[in-house]
UniProtKB/TrEMBL annotation:
Residues 473-549 form the Carrier domain. One of its GO terms (biological process) is amino acid activation for nonribosomal peptide biosynthetic process. Belongs to the ATP-dependent AMP-binding enzyme family. Keywords: Lipid metabolism. This is Aminoadipate-semialdehyde dehydrogenase. The keyword Magnesium does not apply. It comes from Iconisemion striatum. SMART domains: PQQ. InterPro entries: ACP-like_sf, AMP-bd_C_sf, AMP-binding_CS, AMP-dep_synth/lig_dom, ANL_N_sf, Beta-ala_Activ/Resist, PP-bd_ACP, PQQ_b-propeller_rpt.
Length: 980
């Protein structure tokens, strides 16, 4: 590949490295921003490349280069509606004159950002570092970074410009430290090593001292960059006293590619008794200007400030910039302390936080933990912005280099190491700086660029937390362990059940820590827990937790007299042991959730939990001498347009045979309303962080309302009060309606960040997430709980079938047009509407069985008439179509007076006085249509005073729907005898 780069540069062209693992839409945007003409693709990746990009670009294979095992592909943007933004960007592609290469960010937090690097910007780096490192033809330079990370440019051209060897290893080898060490230091005798500190630390103390920095090491130059440099004290523990390797600290940012400063660490400093706490960034490299500015933008020579980097020729072009302005200075976001003529790295601004009212530098804390002899590697971060975590690779575990799962025999080792490390930290640090949790890991997760992957570590924390919670024999033992840890007591110290936490040696900070530990490890939520810890005894806290947990989870507590069998999750708390199982079952209310597309979910009943189509009781489709009419029962003003579809929660009423029915609906006014279905009275109202277009869902236990919001959050609200119980943040707006698994209680929802998320509301964690192949996830996922399958679709034209429990792909299908419609499933058929006008039907293995072409885009979602083997779906051509499920043939069609955006619903007319199955659907002009499901003949209609993009939800003879005149309406369907 390096040969191709040289030939590209010799032809006065620039090269753009693309990440083969990146989603297709990101690669397509980068191609458009750069005006990319040709791609050289490794032969083994051609099929994957075409599959991920065929929807965004037109590709033509120009030929193969057999010697390099590469296929050359010509690129042209595809002019389709969904790539409008890409075309707008590519219409004004900047000139590439004088450019060497173009890099791009990952795009995980938005559109990918491009950095176009001129020859005159990167060349001074190569020339200066070649001189500083004294590279010659005898050197072996290891290409540690992927081509998408700009240090790779330095590695490649340091070697090629000096006649040195460039050592390239498969990516997988970098993940196996022992084999990589043998390859680098024994097989190929590497002399120049430019790596991140985290990648280096993966070798472990033994390999570092015996191979990398041994007395006879082949490594002549070790350049550490991309992350904060380890302290001199830590570096000195890695090297043999006779080691002669020159160690450099290099610093820079991609926006001024590649390096800006370099500091050669004197050997005398590493051998000194009095070692400084940090390594300076060093002097600016050739043609580079480095400034430190305070909060007011003034250049300072002493004190703390932000680093700015630039120079006359050291200027890259970012995103849409078309002219390199000489002398441009780029803000780095990095803060340093200027002392004399040296700069000492403090960290990113967001890594300097306030905790309990006191300042804490997470990077400084990380360095201090690294200095402990029991610690080989460490990363410090905040979990959900609150909980201070320290991920630690212990010296013993690091040398073993365990795999990604936790070693089975490491429990005692982990407990001993954790206790010792925390004890040492308590002697070195003030209380606000001590981590809430020490997470022992076999190794630190890395990004493809070799830096610490904090997101992956946080996922590890969640897994380890769940693993830990599953181990204790009972609730009492779990609380006992957390209580002892919070007080810093050994595990063999007895706790008096009548003791108070404060009197036992706790303080306010330890109380907060214990509260967070309990909520985190036990997956419960409590507003009163803090008060119970402060005022109550150990016994009181245990009793409080027993009441919080569902009965089957708290059954092991000492407050219960016998084990309870496993059962469905319950929303009823506070069960005590003296109540029999039968009594508890009798007190559990029946919970039914009625949603769009005639879906009803029954949970917490004495029958098995199930999801089925609503109220289709059969009955003979006989003509009746009656007429039907719709009349308004009530309406509620939400403040702005209502595009969301209502959801109805019905709970058994112990005082009456009539269930308590509540309507939940969101609005573009940011409001969520809870309304009494019968009277329309407002029960509660919440204002969320942004617009609400997504329909709400109800948790398995019936105690939580789940709704997505334009602010990117999924809100879990108490169904009785509207209070927020949990908030989960995705990467973009949530317009998808959540789906609830009646078996496990998982809540699955899509986001405009392109992912579907499986959330556990009880444990308040994300169990898994999956990227849907490109494009936002607007449509709502559909659960097939019996076979543990999930169907999801994206605006990128991808339809996926995922394993509900793991998120793994079972099959996928892609077409060139977006899916706004939501998939539905019935009797082995998966049906979805497409913007190209087709209603598509797939088998449960992903085979396209048939498709029916309407005369307009299909945004409506399909609904089934189970006993008639029919499906219903609307189209923007204004019609509602009834199709045969087996072959897609047309049964009947009904022409409305507007477009059909909403999802139809089917229901039995018996409650309204008519036998047979009826169909309800809304057209965008505000008309509500009731049709006979047998032949599509109109039964009655009613027009609302505004456009309608919401869908009908029906219970008995009551219909609820939202309207764009700011109101949600409840209509009654009634019948009367016709005059004869």
């Amino acid at each position: 590949m390096s040969c191709l780069l040289v030939r590209i540069l010799q032809s006065d062209a620039a090269y753009v490295p693309l990440d083969p693992e990146a989603p297709g839409f990101i690669a397509a945007e980068v191609m458009s921003q750069c005006g990319l003409k040709y791609c050289a693709v490794t032969n083994g990746l051609v099929q994957q490349f075409q599959a991920s990009l065929t929807k965004y670009i037109t590709m033509e294979i120009c030929g193969e280069l057999p010697k390099f095992r590469v296929t050359l592909i010509q690129i042209e943007p595809r002019p389709v509606a969904e790539t409008e933004q890409v075309r707008a960007q590519s219409a004004d592609v900047p000139e590439h004159k004088g450019l060497a290469y173009v890099l791009h960010t990952s795009g995980t937090t938005g559109a990918p950002k491009t950095v176009r690097v001129p020859h005159k910007c990167i060349l001074p780096n190569i020339v200066d570092l070649r001189s500083l490192f004294q590279i010659n033809a005898d050197d072996v330079v290891f290409l540690a970074s992927p081509l998408t990370f700009d240090p790779s440019v330095v590695d490649i051209f340091l070697a090629l410009s000096s006649g040195a060897q460039l050592l390239i290893v498969p990516t997988v080898m970098k993940k196996i430290p022992n084999r990589l060490a043998r390859l680098l230091f024994k097989d190929h005798r590497t002399t120049v090593l430019q790596v991140t500190p985290t990648l280096l630390m993966r070798f472990g103390h033994r390999i570092l001292k015996q191979d990398v920095l041994s007395s006879g090491s082949s490594v002549r130059v070790l350049a550490l960059g991309g992350e904060a440099c380890p302290s001199p004290a830590l570096l000195s523990t890695w090297r043999h006293e006779d080691n002669k390797t020159c160690i450099f600290n290099i610093y820079g940012i991609t926006e001024v590619s590649c390096w800006a400063c370099c500091y050669k660490i004197p050997e005398s400093l590493l051998l000194s008794i009095n070692l400084p706490s940090s390594v300076p960034l060093g002097a600016p490299l050739m043609d580079t200007v480095v400034e430190v500015r305070d909060d007011h933008g003034c250049i300072i020579s002493e004190g703390e400030g932000q680093v700015f980097i630039g120079g006359e020729d050291r200027v890259c072009l970012l995103d849409g910039e078309d002219t390199a302005v000489p002398g441009t200075m780029r803000a780095t976001g990095d803060w340093v302390n200027a002392k004399g003529d040296q700069l000492y790295y403090l960290g990113r601004r967001d890594r300097i936080i306030k905790r309990n009212g006191k300042r804490l530098n997470l990077d400084s804390l990380q360095q201090l933990i690294l200095s402990l002899p029991q610690v080989q590697a460490c990363a410090v971060g905040l979990y959900e912005g609150l909980r201070l975590l320290a991920f630690v690779v212990s010296s013993a575990a690091g040398d073993q280099m365990a795999a990604s799962t936790f070693p089975s025999g490491s429990a005692q080792l982990g407990a001993d190491a954790t206790s010792l490390i925390l004890k040492q930290l308590s002697l070195l640090l003030p209380s606000h700086s001590i981590p809430d949790t020490l997470v022992l890991v076999p190794e630190l997760s890395l990004t493809p660029h070799g830096k610490v992957d904090m997101d992956a570590l946080m996922r590890t924390y969640r897994r380890q937390r769940d693993f830990r919670f599953s181990q204790p024999d009972d609730l009492k033992q779990t609380l006992l362990t957390l209580w002892q840890e919070a007080l810093g007591l050994p595990g063999n110290v007895n706790i008096d059940e009548q003791s108070n936490f404060l009197f036992a040696g706790g303080d306010s900070l330890k109380v907060l820590r214990l509260r967070e530990d309990i909520l985190t490890y036990m997956g419960v939520s409590s507003l009163n827990l803090l008060e119970v810890i402060l005022d109550g005894t150990f016994s009181d806290v245990l009793q409080h937790l027993t009441q919080l947990l569902p009965a089957e989870e708290s059954s092991a507590s000492t407050f219960e007299s016998k084990k309870h069998p496993a059962g469905p999750l319950s929303g009823i708390h506070g069960k005590r042991a003296h109540k029999s199982i039968e009594t508890e079952q009798e007190e559990k209310p029946d919970v039914k959730v009625v949603r769009r597309a005639s879906e009803v979910m029954e949970v917490n009943t004495r029958k098995a939990d199930r999801t089925e189509n609503l109220q289709v009781l059969g009955g003979k489709d006989l003509s009746r001498p009656i007429s039907m009419s719709l009349s308004q029962s009530w309406s509620s003003d939400t403040g702005r347009c209502v595009d969301a579809t209502p959801v109805i929660l019905l709970r058994a009423n112990q005082r009456s045979d009539v269930p308590k029915a509540t309507v939940f609906i969101g609005s573009h006014s940011h409001r969520v309303q809870a309304l009494d279905l019968v009277t329309g009275n407002l029960l509660w109202e919440r204002v969320l962080g942004d617009r609400i277009e997504a329909s709400a869902a109800v948790s398995r236990c019936g105690s939580l309302i789940v709704v997505g919001c334009y602010d990117g959050c999924v809100y879990f609200l108490c169904s009785d009060s509207g209070e927020t119980q949990w908030l989960f943040k995705t990467g973009d707006a949530v317009k998808s309606s959540p789906a609830v698994d009646p078996v496990s209680g998982l809540v699955v929802v899509g986001s405009h960040d392109g992912h579907v998320y499986a959330l556990n509301p009880q444990l308040q964690l994300c169990v898994w997430k999956h990227h849907c192949g490109g494009g936002a996830v607007f449509s709502s996922p559909h659960l097939q709980a019996t076979h543990r399958r999930l169907y999801a679709a994206s605006l990128g034209g991808h339809l996926l079938c995922l394993d509900l429990d793991s998120g793994h792909v079972m099959w996928s299908y892609c077409r060139d047009t977006p899916f706004f419609s939501s998939p539905n499933f019935f009797c082995g058929h998966v049906v979805i509407g497409s913007v190209d006008g087709n209603i598509c039907c797939f088998s449960d293995t992903g085979e396209l069985l048939w498709q029916f072409l309407t005369e307009g885009p299909v945004f409506s979602s399909p609904c089934f008439v189970p006993e008639q083997q029919k499906l219903l779906c609307g189209s923007h051509d204004g019609r509602l179509y009834c199709l045969n499920c087996s072959d897609g043939s047309l049964v009947w069609t009904f022409q409305t007076t507007g477009k059909v955006y909403s999802t139809p619903c089917v229901f039995d007319g018996f409650a309204a006085g008519r036998r047979g199955v009826l169909v309800g659907v809304a057209s965008t002009d505000g008309t509500i249509w009731i049709l006979d499901a047998r032949d599509g003949q109109i039964v009655t209609s009613h027009t609302l005073p505004g456009e309608v993009f919401s869908s009908l939800v029906v219970w008995d003879n009551t219909l609820v729907i939202g309207c764009r005149n700011d109101y949600v309406y409840c209509l009654n369907l009634k019948s009367q005898l016709k005059d004869i």
